[in-house]
Write a structure and sequence with these properties.
single chain, alpha+beta, 3-stranded mixed β-sheet, 2 helices, 3 strands
């Protein structure tokens, strides 16, 4: 999913990475039940972890990756 970065970020050029657009990945992922087949094919990374990026890359390879642009502001989802 993609969300707009608020325009009021002061001096964004001071950050180590200057965004090339006003869009950001929110980290909210929804998968179909085929995700478990993808997970079974993954190998642990150098951190000895299965990486969500590898799942996303496989969906891209299979041309099954999509996205939605959300209107509104970004809020935190924690301590729910």
């Amino acid at each position: 999913m993609i969300c707009t970065i608020p325009p009021e970020i002061p001096k964004p050029y001071c950050y180590s990475v200057v965004p090339k657009s006003d869009l950001a990945v929110t980290g909210l992922y929804l998968y179909d039940c085929g995700v478990f087949d993808v997970i079974r094919t993954l190998k642990p990374s150098g951190r000895e972890e299965l990486e969500i990026t590898d799942v996303n890359n496989e969906y891209i390879r299979q041309e099954k990756m999509g996205y939605s642009m959300l209107d509104g502001c970004l809020s935190r989802c924690r301590d729910v």
